Amino acid sequence: MPQVSTAKSLLAGASTRKYRTQEELIRFALFLCAFLSVLTTLSIIAILAWEAYSFFREVGVFDFLSGTRWTPLLEPRSFGVLPLVAGTFQIVVGASLIAIPVGLASAIYLAEFASAEVRRVLKPVLEILAGIPTVVYGYFALTFVTPLIAAVFPSTQIFNAASASIVVGIMVLPMTASLCDDALRAVPESLRQGAFALGATQFEVTLRVVLPAALSGVMASFVLAASRAIGETMAVTLAAGATPKMTLDPLQSIQTMTAYIVQVSLGDTPVGTVEYQTIFAVAALLFAITLGMNIIAHRVLARFREVYE
Amino acid sequence: MRSDRLRRRHATTRVFRLLCATLAWAGIVILAVLLFHVTREGIRWLDLQFLTEFPSRFPEQAGIKSALWGTVWLIILTAGFSIPVGVAAAIYLEEFSPKDRLSQLIEVNIGNLAGVPSIVYGILGLVLFVRFLALGRSVLAGSLTMTLLILPVIIIAAREALRAVPDSIRQAAFALGATRWQAVRAQVLPVALPGILTGVILALSRAIGETAPLVMIGALTYVAFVPEGPMDAFTALPIQIFNWASRPQENFHQLAAAGIMVLLVTLLLMNATAVWIRQRAERTGR
Fold first, then answer.
1. For residues B17 and B11, what is the distance between their CA atoms, to the nearest angstrom?
2. Is the minimum CB–CB distance between B177 and chain A shorter than 8 Å?
């Protein structure tokens, strides 16, 4: 057996030591690559904290978080971030109104009703929809959805929250559907069979047995979808407008946190000024909100996995 | 009376099924409408001149030469950085890492990084690469930013591919006296390669479409030259599309549509390649 003898000779003395050092070096190099992700997170936090700190030396944290007028680039300046937050949440609510029902219904269809062949067609389509760049959705909102809305409601502004909400909803729909699908399919078959054996119809099994059993996963997918919608940038920049205001009217132009950051970075605001530092304060808020939501969602998902595996 | 109720319950199921099916197929309808709209608007402008001309104030003369080359540069550099680092990180987490606190931290951290909005990566790139490392608004700074953005995606995909390799292969290699690295390099990696490649291609196709981080690091929107080195300024396809779409004139909107067609065809080709690799690996079997 030649292999065994090679292995034996490898184990002997000096060559073993050489292999061990080499192995340790490789292991360390691989570790560094993995650790880069931690460094990335630390850099993001450090940069946002540092730059936001120099902003908050000029503007009070409380004024920033509770102010209702956002005019950092115009006199008289005002740094109340609530209009941007309101704009962002208007988009999130609108997008959720589309992504949650349609995503959940698609997932129920895929997991509970559809045949294997239908799944084979629908799943890739959802993947393609998920892979379309956000700037394309922005273009679609501006040149297709907005004219459509304007045809129904003549008071619609060229830039409006409604069309941006609709395309952001379409954008997060595949993610919602696919995560809900995972959650529904993780429900053990025995639960369904038990309910069927008691005489329940497919509708009753789905709504009263499968859905409650998958609820935590479904909820987590909603939170993740909302967090994606909050961080969405290009579609809202192109379609929702650049007028920070607190309104409930979806036909008006608004501005989201992300769109504001883009607006400043495209403009000629001098670097280092308070006006410029606003983007870091807004980005820090954005990062904190999305990170918080992601952590909550992953906690829920992790707990839910423990139950069924 | 009893059968009446049963009939009603079954009817409810049928209505519910129809509702879910309709909503599920709505995705296909939306995709079709989107593709139809973009094609109708853009097809008129999509010709050879569109691919070989620089952007211009006059729509008739405008093209995407600099954007196309910028994207090519960006993707090649991004691939060069992100593939080795991403695969190495995945190998560490899947094959080497002890199950301790630090590994757990890294794992949770990668999951969270995947959910950070892309514009935040843009800010990171702006401060870290453009200013702190003084790389300027170069294609190098852009691709480093993109690398950080897609690393979590690559790591997660590569880990899944490594996890799918049966443990018996590792055990057999160890039994023959291979060290862990020898087992990984000679046995595990070749088996996992198709899966890793699929994940890498999908991650890179995400990088091609990303716009916000490039806007943040200040990829120029008007560039009338092709980058010749990693330190050159650049523009990219999605930035050019964004620029045209944000102008008020109808003609520029149609140019944006033509640009979108080029972008979507590129992405489609990449996705098709990924699917082809996956299917070929499944056919040749293990």
1. 10
2. yes
